[in-house]
Task: inverse folding
């Protein structure tokens, strides 16, 4: 699962909770940020094998700290708590439920990974591995990612007040994510090394976080002028 994760970020943001979209973009990929960092440190293990599954080259054979069910729950709580602490420090007026609205997207990552991954997600430690393996079916997996993303963006546009120019930018961002997913799923390429792969994860995910940050600023000056 790749761009499908962002559907949850888009869907979770509302005018009521006012959680910045960029925060939710980190939340939905929080487990992968931990994973990428641990692979870089040599603690978790990854093999990149051409044709490993139809839709992905990643053989993530040892990732008990970032991607087991038990640690996914723990990381979700850590993220929710961190958000609560940061909000109260900054005197933010976020609704009381905001921390759990950050925690649940973190956990959603594991659920969506469960659908796509082959049996490499441990329940705890490195044992009892599960995964429905939708990555073995390239077109259905791709269709699910795009459908989820589209639903998330429709919800985001419906549940948030914004100027037309930002709506356009959000849709353009969605199209860009679809193009990136097409590239990831269908364009043949030679496998990178494990370290190069997770460096790419860091770079791309952070780029998306920056886009989410700037997109919620588009047209905000104009809005205040009207008031
Ligand atoms: Zn993951």
Result:
């Amino acid at each position: 699962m790749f761009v499908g994760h962002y559907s949850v970020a888009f869907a979770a943001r509302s005018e009521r909770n006012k959680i910045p979209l960029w925060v939710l973009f980190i939340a939905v990929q929080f487990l992968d940020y931990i994973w990428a960092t641990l692979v870089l440190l040599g603690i978790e293990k990854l093999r990149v094998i051409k044709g490993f599954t139809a839709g992905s080259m990643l053989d993530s054979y040892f990732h008990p700290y970032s991607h087991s069910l038990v640690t996914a729950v723990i990381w979700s709580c850590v993220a929710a708590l961190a958000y609560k602490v940061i909000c109260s420090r900054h005197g933010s007026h976020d609704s009381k439920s905001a921390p759990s609205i950050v925690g649940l997207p973190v956990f959603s990552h594991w659920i969506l990974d469960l659908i796509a991954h082959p049996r490499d997600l441990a329940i705890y430690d490195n044992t009892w591995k599960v995964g429905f393996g939708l990555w073995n079916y390239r077109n259905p997996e791709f269709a699910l990612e795009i459908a989820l993303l589209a639903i998330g963006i429709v919800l985001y546009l419906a549940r948030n007040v914004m100027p037309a120019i930002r709506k356009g930018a959000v849709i353009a961002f969605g199209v860009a994510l679809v193009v990136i997913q097409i590239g990831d799923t269908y364009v043949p390429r030679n496998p990178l090394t494990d370290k190069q792969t997770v460096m790419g994860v860091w770079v791309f995910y952070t780029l998306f976080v920056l886009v989410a940050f700037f997109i919620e600023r588009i047209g905000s000056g104009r809005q205040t002028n009207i008031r």
